[in-house]
Write a structure and sequence with these properties.
Layout: H1 2-17, E1 21-24, H2 27-30, H3 32-40, H4 48-54, E2 59-63, E3 67-75, H5 83-87, E4 93-98, E5 103-107, H6 108-112, H7 138-155
Parallel strand pairs: 3-4
Antiparallel strand pairs: 1-2, 2-3, 4-5
Length: about 160
């Protein structure tokens, strides 16, 4: 849970440095009083509204030229984000996944279609800096590589971030 919060803060700061406006959007930020109540209810016992609230993306990020995006941040120490988990989120959600080696990004429809990402996965098209949605410039990709180095320092060790 601590690493998840660190990952959220890193995404918040990274997107700000990349020129995006960053708005906390998850239920922890918007309906804080409900946070503890929802955590007490097993996911299988939640009402439809409770489930939708629990699966609000962490951020809305906006850039005047690049657009507006829902961002859900996940930290994966050894596991992977599953198709079942992804189905719970809005189809316009982009997942920014922190592993001990990479900062990955994948859309909700890609996950639902069966694409699996884990710490052992290296596919250039799923590296945050290479996502077509954002059209990152070379200096922006360099900033993402810098953050990837911080991720490795803070959250774990792994391969070089030069691939980002």
């Amino acid at each position: 849970m601590v690493n998840g919060r660190i990952a959220e803060e890193l995404v918040h700061e990274l997107f700000k440095e990349l020129g995006f406006e960053v708005y906390p959007f998850g239920y922890e930020q918007t309906v804080t009083g409900l946070t503890y109540s929802l955590k007490e209810i097993k996911p299988s016992k939640r009402s439809r509204v409770q489930s939708k609230i629990a699966h609000m993306p962490d951020f809305v990020v906006h850039h005047q030229e690049k657009g507006t995006f829902f961002i859900e941040v996940k930290y994966l120490s050894k596991g992977k984000l599953t198709k079942t988990q992804a189905k719970m989120y809005d189809e316009d959600t982009l997942f920014v996944l922190f592993t001990q080696k990479w900062i990955l990004c994948i859309s909700q429809p890609e996950l639902v279609a069966g694409v699996e990402l884990s710490d052992d996965t290296y596919r250039k098209e799923f590296m945050l800096g290479h996502r077509e949605e954002f059209q990152f410039t070379v200096p922006e990709k360099d900033k993402i590589r810098e953050y990837c180095t911080h991720v490795i320092e803070i959250l774990g060790t792994g391969d070089s971030p030069d691939s980002q």
